[in-house]
Amino acid sequence: MLKHLKELSELNGVSGDEGRVRDFIIKKVRKHIAELFVDPYGNLIVRKGPEKRPRVMLAAHMDEVGLMINGVDKNGLLKFHAIGIMSNVLMAKRVVIGKDRVLGVMGHKPIHLAKEDELKKTPKTESLFIDIGVSSKEDADKVIQVGDYASFVTEYSENGDMVLGKALDNRVGCFILLQMIKESDLPLYYAFTVQEEVGLRGARIAAHRVKPDIAIAVDTTSSGEWPDEGDAPQYPALGAGAVVTIADRSVICDEKLVSIIRKTAEQKNILYQQKRPMIGGTDAGSMHLAGVGVRSAVISVPARYIHSPLSIASRTDISAAKDLLICSIKNIMGKDKEWV
After folding, report:
1. Considering the entire predicted model, what is its pTM?
2. Where is pLDDT greater, at 271 or 125?
């Protein structure tokens, strides 16, 4: 069992409600760091070792996709706003709601009551609801408030090289940073950011505060192992190593950083692969715009079914991403005059 990844996966922390994840990380890193603070927006920023140039910041977002309650009907059924997730993965899933962890199930009109044309379409989010087993709005109001968050009920498990769990996007990144803090003496800033899933918000604030010369987002990325028409390459793939981004929808990564990361992987025989360009986005998309601009890159772990109640990732890829980060940063810091 990967130490701490199980706990991180099973913590609930939908965007805007990352406190439990932040408290867990603080408890685990406090004795290993030189400085720790939480900014007004909720980002956790820690510094390991002395100040050194170039100033390098690694960022992993704490938040996960989920739901926010935005209404209760007369029968006690809860309406919700989806945060970073689509309706096609929601039906019949169990959720827990609010601080009291009220158990509910995602509901929809029963199939035997649906019209024929409705059976051919994926239900819209607005047609779904959460059933907590009450029969009136009055009863629901006793245990639920508008604005409460709902997270999925998913137990973490491992099967050989594969890890399965909720919120691997991006508790895997948090796990890698946590392991680096405990195992490495590299003088770095580590930012555990909030609200990535709703617009890369926390990372922008963290980068403005730290003012790094170099920022690297540590995240998960969607696996590309799906049947496809034509000869489109199916990558990245589980078990093929850490994923290096050239460009996605949020950032074109710094060419020198990408070159160093690739050369490091090849020199150290670290498994790595490339992400298909112009897909997705990470905290690097906001960090590179901070201040007068920040050289930025992304190292990710591929995962199947991200932005759903359960994802699958590979221990091999997680280990490769951590090794690639450590070795690449050593090489980057050895070229200090190029960055400052």
Report:
1. 0.94
2. 271
